[in-house]
Amino acid sequence: MQGRTDDLRDELSSFFASIPYNAYYQKRAWSYESHYHYTLYLIFRLLSCYTTLTEKENSRGRADMIVETDDYVYIFEFKLDGTAAEALKQIDDKGYAEPYAADSRKFFKIGVGFSSEKKNITECSVIER
Residue 41 contacts by C-beta under 8 Å, 6 or more apart in sequence? Predict the structure, then answer.
C-alpha cells in the first residue's frame, strides 16, 4: 500500500518458509511455477481491496500478476528456478509496463525468482519508475 517493496519481499519469503514441507510432497506442486504464481495471487486478492490481476494480457504477452492501488502499480513476473533479472527482462521485452506509460501512478517492475528446491523466493529485484 505504501510502496515498501523490501518489506513485501521479506513478508512473502516468511510466508513461503512457513508452509510445511509435507504440504508439497504428494502433488509436487512446488515443481510448477503456477503454484507460486497462484499462491501470491490469492494472498493479494484476499488481503487487499485493490485490483489484483493475473495473466494480464497486453499486445505482446501477459504479465504474471499486476496489483493496482490508488497510488501505485506493481507489475510482477515470476521465474521458477530462474533469476529475477530474467523476469525483469521479460517485463521489458514484452512491454508489460507500457499500458501504464500515461498513468500518473508510480509503478514498480518486480522480478521474482523461486527455487523448487528451497520452495521459496531466492531473488527479488525491483525497478521503480
Answer: 52, 54, 65
Measured from the Cβ of residue 126, the count of other Cβ atoms closer than 10 Å reads: 17
Query: Alpha-carbon distance 118 to 129, whole Å?
Result: 31
Written as one string, the DSSP assignment of 79-122 is EETS-HHHHHHHHHHTTTTGGGTT-SSEEEEEEEEEETTTTEEE
H or E segment to which residue 73 belongs: strand 72-80
| Amino acid symbol at 99 | P
More confidently predicted of 68 and 20: 68
What is the chain's mean pLDDT, rounded?
83
* Gap between the terminal Cα atoms of the chain: 16
To 10 degrees, the CA torsion angle through 46, 49, 54, 59? 180
pLDDT, tens digit, 9 for 90 and up, residues 80-127: 999 999 999 999 999 999 999 999 999 999 999 988 888 888 999 999
Reported residue count of the chain is: 129
Nearest CA among 61, 45, 56 for reference residue 94: 61
